[in-house]
Amino acid sequence: MNLPPKVTDRAFARLEEIGAGAQGKALRVAVEGGGCSGFQYDIKLDAAAEDDLILTHGQEKVVIDEVSLPFLANAVIDFSEELIGARFTIENPNASSSCGCGTSFSM
């Protein structure tokens, strides 16, 4: 059964920390063709569109367009902070393989 992606409390907390919702922005997670494995994630702050799936927590939002939604079914969107940097991450059970940087995958 395909469920919409889940967003962790840590990811929503990071959005609140950077004031995304206060600026009228949401975290947009999209899947595009390209990258070293066939598909790549495009993650950026953006405004929500009418056809987007909108996941909310307080005034913070994560939005996913209709085309990307099947690629992200059952995925977990998180935020990771390590010595080498901080970034939003996606744990995607639909990906059959991914590259070392974690932004490119194949299905």
TrEMBL record:
Domain of life: Bacteria
Gene3D superfamilies, A to Z: HesB-like domain
InterPro entries: ATAP, ATAP_core_dom, FeS_cluster_insertion_CS, HesB-like_dom_sf
Annotated GO biological process: iron-sulfur cluster assembly
Pfam families with a match to the protein in the record: Fe-S_biosyn
GO molecular function, one term: 2 iron, 2 sulfur cluster binding
Domain Core: 6-102
Name of this protein: Heme biosynthesis protein HemY
Organism field: Salipiger pallidus
